[in-house]
Amino acid sequence: MIGVGMWTSPHVLLEILVRCSVVYAVMLTGFRLMGKREIGQMTAFDLVLLLLISNAVQNAMTGPDTSLSGGIVAAASLFGLNLLISRYVFRHRGARRWLLGTPTLLIRRGEVIETHLKREGVTREALLAALREHGVANIGDVSLAVLEMDGSISVLKRDDIVPSQQPHRHIRFLNKHQ
Question: Are 103 and 168 in contact (CB under 8 A)?
């Protein structure tokens, strides 16, 4: 015999769908506002935050409902929202720029752009670590270093760039004094 608490009413399931949608939107906005560097390089602090947030928003999504159908609707809602947002972002450049961001130039022709580091929350130590990961010992040997949309840092050495190549047109070139 199936337990009575295993299933729930359609009204409660609709409420769970709405709750999941709101929590998804708030969490997506929160992670976007944290910045791309935070998302790309998860630290122990970030992991703890992620675990605590997942526990904190669970009740906000399902409320007092602990039924099997409530859990299935919550999970299906999150999968569905993620699929819809992914497809929307793929089709709309403005949404893609807002949700995913744009690459940011950190080093150009061997010069670190300090204002970009500060704005993106990248420490000089993290930048130097990324350079070492790419086999670069000296900042002067870097033609371009870019903080990508996923939070990783791409590095192109001076030796890697043919003089006729131009940087990608979607990289923000801001005045160094901004």
Answer: yes
